[in-house]
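Lab notebook page, bench 4
Experiment: in silico fold of construct C2
Operator: M.H.
Input chain length: 178 residues
Purpose: comparison with the prior construct
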Amino acid sequence: YEGKTEAPGYLTESELIDKMEKHGIGTDASISVHINNICERNFVRVEGAGRTLVPTHLGIALVHGYHKIDPDLVLPTVRAAIEQQIDYIAKGKADFDLVVKHALSTFLKKFQYFVSHIENMDQLFEASFSTIAETASGASNMKAKCGKCNRFMRYIPMKPCRLYCQTCEETYNLPQTG
């Protein structure tokens, strides 16, 4: 394998927990909630006995989009700084109102900047995903793969509209208003 390198493997749940703890992100009580959220939102799927976190197309597109617009949003530093300030409040070393005011001001600026550059995210999603109209003449012909087992899912048109995986019995709700 001379001259060839390989990308590092994906993180396992325990490796992610170690990294979150190293960067001061989350508490013992909230770390598992964070990991559950990224799974529930279909940003990653858990695979194998080692519980490897494999990013989905959606997760990859979001990280690339956030990085393109505001790299701080995908780095652990912003979240860790907030967690540190919360810890200072708990220890009486920082004023609650000042910390909240500063955090809100910071995130308002980040939000406004993000919104003003949202076309970067739109372009990335257009390049990464096809619209329903492009893939089929209607939703009943839509092709979507399950985030858990990567098999094609079935569109259920009855309200609430949803996608159903017959292999692993996973269900994904769809937006109901178009």
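Observations: Residues 96-116 form the longest helix (21 residues). Residues 132-138 have pLDDT under 50 and may be disordered.
Next step: discuss at group meeting.
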